Amino acid sequence: MTEVFYHNSYNRDRLVHIVDADLPTSEALSVLFRLEGFQTECSSTMAQLLSALEHRHPDVLVMNMVVGGEDSLPMLRRFKSMRTGAPVFLISEESDVTRAVEAMKAGCADVITTPIDTERLVRAVRDSLRRDVHVGAVQGGWRPVEIRGFNQLTPREREVLQLITNGQSNKEAGRELGISPRTIEVHRARVMEKLGARNTADLIRIVLTS
Questions:
Q1: What is the reported pTM?
Q2: 3-state class of 81 per DSSP?
Q3: What gap in Å lies between CA 166 and CA 93, rounded to an integer?
């Protein structure tokens, strides 16, 4: 029960966007992720997805390999070029190794074949969100490294993060920023949640490896 509560609490602000022309599949996946505590949004066409992306970038994108007869790989590449750091999972109705390899090279986190193993999918999504660094597809001979969550930090949270990584205590950081140690603790907790850090040492490791 504690583990379930932890996952639901940890996921409550995270959005999983599902792209599939098959309505029953979208609804089933939406229910699956809502039970895990995620927010969900669904699109049945690439045009709908693009419209949704103008309002909010998802934390996870789950997309059918073919949506309404349209190949999803160009959209995968376009989404990865936005450098949000969000993992993308593709669903394939057939086992095609060549296509799977092509998708992985384009930056896909994993290709899930139907019938969907829901436990494997949820586990893969959890594992991806726990990773601090996402390595993108090769662009011009190099691979961009995206640090998930940094773009979500507020200016104050960035200041707190900087002071923490400099080794300052909550009291010292609070004195420098003119706020209470308790407020520093609240900001630090939010930073840790956004960056997927389990503790302060893990938080510092994320910053140092970035």
A1: 0.60
A2: helix
A3: 50
